[in-house]
Amino acid sequence: MKSVRPFRTRSRRLGTTLVAGLAVLALGACTGNEKNDDDQDLGGGTTQADSGSNDEAGDKIVIGFSAPAADHGWMASITDSAKKVADQYDDVELRVASGTNDVNLQISQVETFINDKVDAIVLLPFDGAAMTPVALKAMQAGIPVINVDREFDDPNAARVTVLGDNYGMGVSAGAYICSQIGDKSDAVVAEIAGIDSLPLTQERSQGFKDALADCGQDVDNRVAADFTVEGGEEAAANLLQAAPKIDAIWNHDDDQGVGVLAAIKNAGRDEFFMVGGAGSANAMRSIQAGDSVLQATVIYPSTQAADGIKLARLLGQQKNMSDLVEVEVPRTVQLYAPVVTKDNVDQFIDTAFES
Fold this sequence. Notes:
Elements: H1 11-30, E1 61-66, H2 73-87, E2 92-96, H3 103-115, E3 120-123, H4 128-140, E4 145-148, E5 160-163, H5 166-181, E6 189-193, H6 199-213, E7 221-224, H7 229-242, E8 248-251, H8 254-267, E9 273-278, H9 281-289, E10 294-299, H10 304-316, E11 332-334, E12 339-340
Parallel strand pairs: 1-2, 1-3, 3-4, 4-5, 5-11, 6-7, 6-8, 8-9, 9-10
Antiparallel strand pairs: 10-12
């Protein structure tokens, strides 16, 4: 039997998450909310900007963009969203390097941007440590670097860092599961992680563990996959075989969740509910339809680079985030990790990525 511990607030970590949420609201407000006729409107643009707003056309700027290869849905959306936001601004020329998982090639891409004297660089590094020296070189050349998702080793290598909240994902998933199962002493909670050697997986798992502890629960069964459909199916099959009874599952990633749901269907299991991770469109459609055990997913925004493009434009045109008192763009923007359920899915599905 599990002992039920009294609820306690993890103030430092959860406080950071709340501040991050406010930062996102400020960013969205300062860059405009005009709608266009595109299927996916990410907000902003010079076409219908009010006079005096940050979206009003300014000096033409050139932004270099580089990211890893689009080898799964989330990463494909990173680049697609960046292009889409840039297209909404008549005063932005976006130069997109070919997506690559070759660190040396990505270094050469950034060096080309430096030689071309672009106004800013938005960079999601394949390897943050390996890309740090060339990012420092760009900063020393007077080109602001906006670092997306995977941090550099040296904070001076970026003017702005845009991050998701991996720890916060785990907290959100755990808190939601707690809200559904409460202090049920015999509840069985399972976890299907991503790649265990990655810090992001470790942070997600720690946040999940910490949030579950607040309602007297813990992780009873845990397996790790590899962020792929095949890996998710294999890991889930192993989990289901090892655990004859489960009340709730958190799967870290909706791309691998395609395989996880296939394994669950093949096993004929439906006595539990599942929470996904990252926030894919197919996961949200399933939540809308109520056609599987998937009941919720936790957002890890695939629009981080799009926010990076908007911030690069502000920096290049020497503007600030107008909803803040601060006269300069902040050094760090950490995006919130909300839980998407059937009740609020309509607010998020338009910017979700396809697995």
